[in-house]
Amino acid sequence: MSVVMSDDAYWRRPPEGSAAPPVPPPSVPASVPYTGAPRSTPPPRGWRPPVVEPPAPPRQLPAQDAERIDREEQAATILTRGMGLFAGAVMLVLLFILCGRALF
Known about the structure:
The protein is 37% helix and 0% strand. The protein is mainly α. The termini are far apart. The mean pLDDT is 88.
């Protein structure tokens, strides 16, 4: 009987009744204790952070004419639908011409 070793064999639990694994030796503590981050150099005397000037207040927008906007939207809708009807009529005429040439 041959024993096949796989990559997972290392991670398997040892068989029942086997000896406990040896205890690793204690690690050596650090020789120098951590003293914290190094101190930074202070800024030059009289130094101040850059100052950002506040922006000017926004201007007053002109009043909107709601009735004029509605009229222009209605005119644009009528124009768009008219162009769509015209394009559809042209395509229908071209379809009739192509079908007529195919039949006759």
